[in-house]
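Researcher: We're reviewing a set of sequences before deciding which ones to prioritize for further study. For each one, I'd like a predicted 3D structure that I can look through quickly. This is 16S rRNA (Guanine966-N2)-methyltransferase. If possible, include the structure in token form so it fits the rest of the review sheet.
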Amino acid sequence: MSRIIAGAAGGTTLTSVAGQATRPTTDRVKEALFSRLDAYNVLTGAHVLDLFAGSGSLGVEAASRGAATVDLVESADRAAAVCRTNAEAINSVLGWTCVRVHRSKVETYLDRVPAGQSWDLVLLDPPYPLADAPLMAILGALAQHLAEGAVVVLERSARSGEPDWPVGLARFAEKKYGETRLWYLEPA
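Model: Here's the predicted structure for 16S rRNA (Guanine966-N2)-methyltransferase, in token form for your review sheet.
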């Protein structure tokens, strides 16, 4: 069972998506990720986008730790319903609507983002089988919506090689945790 690790809603139990359709980020990886993001000082007051949100656990963790807004984007009905449940739980603890859920394919959501909309932190945890070409197209579309100093975190299988990053994004760090690798990107 997943939980919020720290912040205003620390200790809150989260609902998980039943079945094998999603691959939840382990508490170990989540804790390491958010420790690094805290060190980068990108959470407080951040506008956060969580793509391929699954249960929304990464996005709601960001909300608990002081993000100004969090948008969870998930296309699967069952997972989007779990995102709504977890968003409601965190919003209730925070006392306002910080986390919003968008039931949409990531590509469709990014196509509809208005010019001028930007995020300070983007979390992507796509299905491991997603090929590099569609993933790089998503990252390319996202690059135009990043605030100055933004951080993008991509979670992939540790067996996946480093992709050729799209124009507009550059890798500045990466870290492996067992079967998971986190890639840290910034606007180029």
